[in-house]
Design goal:
Layout lengths: L1 H8 L13 H17 L8 H8 L3 H13 L3 E4 L3 E4 L4 E4 L5 H7 L4 E11 L3 H7 L10 E10 L2 E11 L15 H9 L5 E10 L2 H7 L6 E11 L2 E11 L3 E4 L11
Parallel strand pairs: 3-10
Antiparallel strand pairs: 1-2, 4-5, 5-6, 6-9, 7-8, 8-9
Helix pairs in contact: 1-3, 2-4, 3-4
Length: 259
């Protein structure tokens, strides 16, 4: 009932009327202001019935207005619970930095939950990226799985593979911080270049549980192969929550490209 009262308190400031602008567009504007100025991230918006009563519109109008804001990324619908204001996404520019460095630059506290670290035979894709074809201990990698958090909130799941021959006894290190800092300080290996590929997926049940998200939450997936002095040292796949993370890219026209 509190949400109904909140919605009603502002009905005289944003009356939904007939006219050249469709009612669902007017209601979308009202809800957008309500979400950003009054409710805040993670707060549930008034129910469909409350909005219908407050603004004198049909259920179809309410749903169309809400759907518009969901598509715009301002609201999200949780089955059986309601519709909530989306939390602002963390934005990153594509650059060569560790997760820890990236979060610190934003003024956030990076933390890591270590899921597993074991020496295994590399999967084919990682073996190819790392230039590893032989067997034996020299052909093994550390398979490292970690959940990366910002201010204790899960942002990404990392699955990484690192040559055992380059990083002996890595499993004895504290792996809840920056691997790049460990590589540089303990092994004299500094990451100086990388190739990165990006695609999209959705979270299955196990991923959603680790990331504390809804099933089918959109994910931004980054595959990075990192090098030190021209030698490949890292193959890592990071799955970021698309509802909490976005990427910024600056583009310029290649003057050598054809018109």
């Amino acid at each position: 009932m509190d949400h109904v009262a909140d919605a009603g308190a502002h009905s005289d400031q944003a009356v939904i009327t007939g006219g050249p602008e469709p009612k669902h567009i007017q209601l979308s504007a009202v809800l957008a202001r309500m979400a950003s100025e009054e409710l805040g991230p993670g707060v549930m918006v008034p129910s469909e019935r409350a909005l219908m009563v407050t603004y004198g519109v049909s259920r179809a109008t309410v749903r169309k207005a809400v759907d518009t804001l969901i598509v715009d990324g301002l609201l999200r619908r949780v089955q059986g619970k309601g519709t909530f204001v989306v939390e602002p996404r963390l934005e990153s520019r594509l650059h060569l930095a560790s997760f820890t460095q990236d979060m610190r630059r934003r003024g956030l506290r990076p933390t890591t939950r270590l899921i597993s670290c074991e020496a295994v035979e590399p999967p084919p894709e990682a073996a190819a990226s790392l230039g590893m074809t032989g067997g034996g201990s020299g052909g093994k990698v550390w398979a490292l799985t970690r959940v990366r958090c910002a201010d204790d909130r899960p942002i990404a799941l990392e699955n990484g593979w690192y040559p055992v021959s380059l990083f002996p006894e890595l499993d004895r290190r504290n792996l809840t911080g920056s691997l790049y800092e460990i590589f540089a300080s303990d092994y004299g290996v500094s990451i100086d270049s990388a190739e990165q590929t990006l695609w999209g997926e959705s979270a299955d049940r196990s991923l959603a549980q680790l990331l504390e998200s809804e099933i089918a939450t959109p994910l931004l997936v980054f595959r990075r192969v990192s090098h030190s002095g021209g030698q490949p040292v890292e193959h890592v796949v990071s799955r970021y929550r698309g509802d909490r993370y976005q990427v910024h890219m600056s583009l310029s026209r290649d003057e050598t490209s054809p018109s």
